[in-house]
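Lecture notes, structural biology module. Today: joint structure prediction for complexes of four components.
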Amino acid sequence: MPAPISGNAAEPSLDTGLSATPAFSPLYQQIKGLILQRLQAGEWKPGELIPSEIELAARFRVSQGTVRKAVDELAGENLLVRRQGKGTFVATHTEQHVRYRFLKLVPDDGDLIREGPAQRAFLECKRTRASAEIARALGLRSGDAVMQVRRVLSFAADGGAQTPTILEDLWLPGGPFKGLTAERMAGFRGPTYALFETEFGVRMVRAEEKIRAVLPDADQAGILQVAPATPLLSVERVAYTYNDTPMELRRGLYRTDTHHYRNDLS
Amino acid sequence: MPAPISGNAAEPSLDTGLSATPAFSPLYQQIKGLILQRLQAGEWKPGELIPSEIELAARFRVSQGTVRKAVDELAGENLLVRRQGKGTFVATHTEQHVRYRFLKLVPDDGDLIREGPAQRAFLECKRTRASAEIARALGLRSGDAVMQVRRVLSFAADGGAQTPTILEDLWLPGGPFKGLTAERMAGFRGPTYALFETEFGVRMVRAEEKIRAVLPDADQAGILQVAPATPLLSVERVAYTYNDTPMELRRGLYRTDTHHYRNDLS
DNA sequence: GAGTGGTCTAGACCACGCG
DNA sequence: GCGTGGTCTAGACCACTCA
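The predicted structure, tokenised, for the full assembly:
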């Protein structure tokens, strides 16, 4: 139980060699950092209950209000989930009441009902070596081992027939994802990121997407059952775990004839 | 200076006819509502300094901490901007150090420098009547007066030549935007939403976008100087002012050969 | 130095979930 | 009824801005 600072009021934390700016950091930020460390270290695992504010306050030798502000920020970043009367939990993709937290493609008719969590078909799951481009995105070196997955998501149209709507290629660093197979992915109930959490201990925290309009090649058009001249959304995503470490590169092709990519700006 | 509640602790606010649930609302939420009212009423205008926390606390008969929490939330929603040592200001699109807060199209080479705030050409600005579709999006009735604007944004390519990249059609309710002309828009320095603020008193607070991949018609292809078979991003935006009132419908076509739509997920 | 927002504390009470 | 997070208060001190 490290006492993060000495006095009562905040002080410039550790002195970094060149102290151009004293780099004042509020106490609650330091507490936030300490909590983050424990999350990264896997001390508190996704879905688990973390110590109560009062206990954390005692442990860190600060007031409950200071812990509260640290936890507030972490909850705002979707790393923790507060539940009044129960406690504070490590956020998870498993039972996140919003399934598909990162999937912004929604049916045109505002039906959020999501007719069954989409049908997934895994076309490929192989171990390969990272190209320069893939390596750069994942923070690896060219030639490093990576897992490559290709899958198709189909959504039920009006009649109930499944329409292939998303074609995705995933690249994952070979180390953490050793042992990933199409069978394991196909057999898993729930979001892919939930599988990554429970089976590989990798929790995706945030992601960046680059979106373009493109035409599919013959292969892609065939898989998505569209004419070659059909414009599609190209969605390139890099997903990060704790500490801004990239852990997934994903290239998706979205049909937008019955769905659209929805984004809220503020 | 209305005292929002009677006692010391929070109480269920006004009793709504059917009191199925007492609808408990924290004090700071009520304060937030009161501040919002004043913002909507234009009592504090964009860019202006609002009263200090201490004065607001006195005015509302609550503690500074309660005002602080209300202001914190409003700042989080980009309605207010806090500046330490100076005060709290009403947010504005004018000098928002991030120009183009709602424009997510960025050059492929991560250069955020934004080579000159884009060159704008206004092709049209006319008063028309709302179609059923436009009316629905803007919360009007079919046939109501609307302003319709068509413009092209061009960005400098490597050499320095301007490349037409965005073709946008805007629809605005005729009432608030009476007197809008292409000349006024062309002559205005700064973001369009800043013009709306200073010239028409309409402040855009948030927006929703629906994105698809499409092919341009002959007209559109000509304006954007692309082949007819070039896939483009279709970005349909509804922008809202206070109180979730829609005030703009915007349909954009984005070229994505040198730029991409960037989105951060968390 | 005065005024503003920012941090930190300590204590009280409330709403919620659960046994 | 207990423990949790949620709200509210009052007061102290710190960091920043500007005259």
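Point to remember: The interface with chain A takes residues 77-78, 101-102, 104, 205-215, 229, 231-233, 237, 254, 256, 260-266 of chain B (CB under 8 Å).
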